[in-house]
C-alpha cells in the first residue's frame, strides 16, 4: 500500500484518481475546498484537508500537518482556468495573478513543504498535472492567455525541481482533453479514462523520467 497525496481532489481528474487509488487499497490524502467534497472522499476512505491554494499560509499549514508522513507519490493536480476570452487590451491583473498563484506558485510551495515526506519513501515521486496548452511550440491559435502562461511556468518550475532535487522523480503529465468543468463537452476523454491513464504513467515512471513532460499515454510532449 502506498500513500498518495492529491491536491484538488474534490472533482474532475483529481476526484477520479483519488477514487481509483482508494479502490486499489492505497492510502489517499486529499486536499479539498468544500465540506461536500470532503464528506464524499471521507466516505470512500480518504483523509482530507482543507487547503486554499491562493493562500501560502494554508499551504504551509498543510505541509506541517503531513510533515511526519511518508509520501510515495505527490500529485499536484489543483488548477484553475479564468477568462478564456481575455485579450491583451483588457488584462485583469488580479485574475492573472490568481492563476499564477494556483497553477505555478502553489505547486512550488507544496513541493518545498513536502520534500522531506517524499524523500522518506521508496518511489520519491512528485507529479504535476500540466496541459497541452503549456506547449509554447504548439501555440498556433492563441487565446486562454492566463492558463497557457501559468502552465508553461509550471513546466519550468517542475523542470527546475528535477534539476535541483536529483533524488526526487519530478514528472509533468498532460492528462489529455477531458470532459470536466475546466475542459470542453466535446473533449475525447472522460475523467475516469484520463485518471486511469495518468495513474498508469505514474506507476511506470522511474528516475530516468525526472524532468520530462509527457502525455497521458506516456508520449513525450514538446515544450
How does this model look, in words?
This protein has one domain: Rossmann fold (3-Layer(aba) Sandwich). The chain contains 6 helices and 7 strands, in the order E-H-E-H-E-H-E-H-E-H-E-H-E. It has a 7-stranded parallel beta sheet, with helices on both faces. With 223 residues, the chain is an alpha/beta fold. 43% of the residues are buried. The protein is globular.
Topology:
Elements lengths: L2 E4 L5 H12 L3 E6 L2 H10 L2 E4 L5 H10 L7 E4 L16 H27 L5 E5 L15 H20 L4 E6 L16 H14 L8 E3 L8
Parallel strand pairs: 1-2, 1-4, 2-3, 4-5, 5-6, 6-7
Helix pairs in contact: 1-6, 3-4, 4-5
Summarize the structure in short.
With 223 residues, the protein is α/β, with parallel strands linked by helices.
Shape: globular
SS class: alpha/beta
**CATH superfamily label:** NAD(P)-binding Rossmann-like Domain
* Alpha carbon gap, first and last residue: 34 Å
The domain tally reads 1
- If you compute it from the alpha carbons, what radius of gyration comes out, rounded to the nearest whole angstrom? 16 Å
Known CATH architecture: 3-Layer(aba) Sandwich
Strand order of the largest sheet: 3-2-1-4-5-6-7
Tell me what portion of residues adopts beta-strand conformation.
5-15%
Average predicted local confidence, pLDDT? 95
Biggest β-sheet strands, sense, barrel: 7 strands, parallel
Helix content: 40-55%
